[in-house]
Design a protein that fits this description.
5 helices
Length: 99
């Protein structure tokens, strides 16, 4: 069966109309907002907990990574051969660290 050219144009147009309507339905329209509403949408309000967390972070940065007193004590024990540790104590310490 041969389709006349004027019908094929109508079929093509109907197809493209349906396609464009499907695309329109898939992409939701963004609600129009005024400039004042946009400013409110971009507003950030921090809780009191965030201020506390920031303060704790600053305090933790002041704590040294290496406890020099403990290092010196262990060095002295190693030199005097008083420092002894077993594998079981090391394993227990590692397990407790990850709990």
């Amino acid at each position: 069966m041969k389709i006349p050219s004027y019908l094929s144009i109508k079929i093509r147009d109907a197809y493209f109309d349906q396609l464009s309507e499907l695309k329109r339905k898939k992409t939701p329209e963004k609600p129009k907002t005024s400039d004042t509403e946009r400013v409110k949408a971009d507003e950030i309000i921090l809780s009191s907990q965030s201020a506390e967390i920031r303060k704790i972070e600053e305090l933790s940065k002041k704590i040294p990574d290496i406890r020099q007193e403990k290092v010196e004590t262990i060095k002295e024990q190693i030199e005097s051969k008083e420092y002894s540790i077993t594998g079981a104590l090391v394993a227990k310490s590692i397990i407790n660290f990850f709990r």
